[in-house]
Amino acid sequence: MAEEIVRVEDLRKLFPRKVRREGAKPWTRVIPGRGSVTEPFVAVDGVSFEIRRGEIFGLLGPNGAGKTTTIRMLSTLLEPTSGSATINGYDIRKQTSLVRQSLGAVLTGERSIYWKLTGRENLEYFATLYHMPPRTAKQRIQELLERLDLAHRADEYVERYSSGMKQRIAIAKALLANPPVLLLDEPTIGLDPQSARNLRELVLEVRSEGRTILLTTHYMEEADLLSDRVGIIDSGRIIALDTPERLKGSLRQLDVMKLELHDYDPALDGVLASIPAVENVVSSPAGNDGAWYVSLHARDTRAVLPSVIELVGSRSGRITNLQVAQPTLEDVFIAHTGKQLRD
Amino acid sequence: MGQSTLTAPSDTLARPRVSAGSTLRVLLAVARKEWIIFTRYPTWVIAIIVWPVIFPLGYIFTAKALGGPNGASLHAFERLAGTSDYISYIVMGTVMWMWLNMTLWDIGFHLREEQMRGTLESNWLCPVPRLLMMMGASLAKLSTSFIFLILTVIEFRLVFGVSLVRGNVPLLLAVVLLTMPSIYGIGVMFASLVIRFREANAMVFLVRGLVSVFCGITYPLAVLPVWMHGVAQFIPITYAIRDTRAAALSNASFAQVAPDLAKLGAFAVVLPVLGCLAFAYTERRARRTGSLAQY
Ligand SMILES: Nc1ncnc2c1ncn2[C@@H]1O[C@H](COP(=O)(O)OP(=O)(O)OP(=O)(O)O)[C@@H](O)[C@H]1O
Ligand SMILES: [Mg+2]
Predict the structure, then answer these.
(1) Which of A101, A151, B2, B30 could share a disulfide with B127, CB 3.0–4.6 Å?
(2) Which residues, 6+ apart, have CB-to-CB distance to B234 below 8 Å?
């Protein structure tokens, strides 16, 4: 039995994208091919990774990084422009039916199920689409409903469910055919903190049954908490791939400083970065009241601290909090790209 | 979360047990799901019970007004139409038109609705040919249409005392059955175009506008200018309307409408094939451009 249940090799996806032609008159837009030209846009740019059986693999990256596009290619909804991938040994281009039978996927969360059907009706419907014999399906559905704590509401319309319950029905749907691989695209997006926590627990439980999970997220805590290994993806490329510990460990020679400031001028980022021994500086406003967060990676905190305080002070900013922190996956992202995960 | 643990994933289960039975079950499951959702929106009552009677009324009263007192000027109509029963004449045309119209909206918007709901992709993630699901949905719409047709017949019997099923009944049924594949072929073609262009209203209005003008839903084609006849003969509904009227109102024989039946038969082959091609094209294109995820 192959150790690697998902293999992705040099997967690329170009989308045709309409770009307004230079100098085109506004009214030519209505004539196809006159006001715009179609240019290929690279959404996924040669991604390779392997997922071992029983592993949770996280794809972490900012908006537009190519996470969803990658997962949609693996689930046979999108055709790769080039490259190849196998799931459970089946080729995603040539053996689409077998790939789909081997996969449970939740791509659009609560929107992937019918709100005008009850939870049970949804599952019965999809069970048929996975060619499950009716009797097996019935049992399996009851088992899943109980397991996901939905049995008492199973015969209500989904539209009356909370977001967390809808998401659980969507996951139940993905687990119906007992697939060895689960693909989850941003599984906790839009959930309240409690539901998100429950869902993460569920993901861990599902893994402990021996299933392999590929999930995408742009929450670094989530990737850190859930994943056995994380691929950090940006602009369609995987820029780092390892266990969360080792990724963070790779920054050990750097100190990570988190500053909270008042009246900060982001133009100062560049000036701070020019202090010798400072490697990366990124800043973001922390609300509307003039507070800012600044993350600063330095080879030696003690040496740079006076310069940092002096520089910030000279520009009328005020440091309200400063700590030297453990590096997070976000810092790994900053170290590789010079950007923040969220902006 | 509950206590019981689930059975571990198995590679044997991952192999689909596809059989003729499971394929048929898929078809029926899709149809059943469509049907359930349809009936859970209260507007269905209007669509299949109220509308069939309301819609032709305008035409019927127009005809009554133009016909003059006691239908004095109806003989002109009779000369062209071959019958003076203008109520049945109009109803046969409007029913055909409503059937087509219903199908265009129902099937035409089927994929689009699934797309906007977000369920299209979760269906397409299943190990089932996508055309099969489209056919399942068409089957559901077909059953709605049948109920619609039957209710229409009953309602006209009760409201106007007009029997629509009369004359050469076997021929009447044959024409309806022979028209079905064309209507559903057009429906599937529509469904594909609708998600391709993400806009359907304009196209539906165009098609049903063409049909209502060219196919003679309320008047004999003889009143149309010659060039319009040319267009009409490329629309299957023209023959469907003409022949249901011939069968029911003039008691025509199979032999009398044989040329029309042959043409309807040809449409019944060509249009579903075109529908499937359009669907295949849209599916392929969607996989290349990812257009399904956008709305
Ligand atoms: N069907 C499409 N046609 C054209 N461009 C697309 C299409 N789908 C995605 N893109 C583009 O490809 C890039 C990657 O998108 P993708 O949805 O994979 O990102 P993501 O990592 O999932 O981001 P997010 O966190 O916002 O979900 C984006 O720039 C997006 O605009
Ligand atoms: Mg995404």
Answers:
(1) A101
(2) none
Per DSSP bridges, beta strands A229-234 and A212-217 are unpaired
Verify whether the Cβ–Cβ distance B121 to A76 is below 8 Å: no
Residues in chain B: 295
The single-letter code of the amino acid at B221 is L
Residues 6+ apart with CB under 8 A from B196: B282, B285, B291
d(CA A137, CA A173): 11
Instruction: Give the containing element (helix H, strand E) for A230.
Output: strand A229-234
**Ligand 1 in reach of B289 Cβ (< 6 A):** yes
**Which of A94, A113, A114, A182 to mutate: most B Cβ within 10 Å?**
A114
Quick check: ipTM above 0.90?
A: no
Q: Which positions in chain A touch B13 (Cβ < 8 Å)?
A: 177-178
Strand partners, A318: A262
Helix (H, G, I), strand (E, B) or coil at A192: coil
Rg for chain A, CA atoms, rounded: 24
A17 lines ligand 1 (CB under 6 A): yes
Closest residue, chain A, to B287 (C-alpha): A78
Answer yes or no: are the C-beta atoms of A66 and A45 closer than 8 Å: yes
- Chains A, B: CB contacts under 8 A, how many? 146
Higher pLDDT, B173 or A25: B173
Q: What is the rounded CA–CA span in Å between residue A53 and residue A55? A: 6
Q: Cα–Cα distance between A228 and A235 in angstroms, integer?
A: 23
The torsion region of residue A159 among left (phi > 0), alpha (psi -120 to 50) and beta comes to alpha
Could you tell me the strand order of the sheet in which A212-217 lies?
A103-106, A181-185, A212-217, A56-60, A229-234, A237-242
Indicate the residue type of A267.
A
The residue whose CA has the least distance to atom 24 of ligand 1 is A63
Q: From CA B220, how far away is CA B117, in angstroms rounded?
A: 43
Q: What is the pLDDT of residue A22?
A: 65
**Residue of B104 and A329 predicted with greater confidence:** A329
Whether the CB-CB separation of A35 and A24 falls below 8 Å is answered with: yes
H or E segment and range at residue A168: helix A163-175
Q: CB-hemisphere CA count at 13 Å for A79? A: 11
Residues of B in contact with A142 (CB under 8 A): none
B22 touches chain A (CB under 8 A): yes
pLDDT of residue A272: 87
Dist CA A151 CA A118 (whole Å): 11
* Rounded mean pLDDT, B143-166: 86
Rounded-to-5 percentages of helix, strand, coil across chain A: 35, 30, 30
Alpha carbons B272 and B181: distance in angstroms, whole number = 6
**Residue A153: half-sphere exposure toward Cβ, Cα within 13 Å:** 16
Q: What is the pLDDT of residues A248-280, one digit of tens each?
A: 888 877 888 888 888 888 888 888 888 888 888
Query: In this complex, do B9 and A101 lie within 8 Å of one another by their Cβ atoms?
Result: no
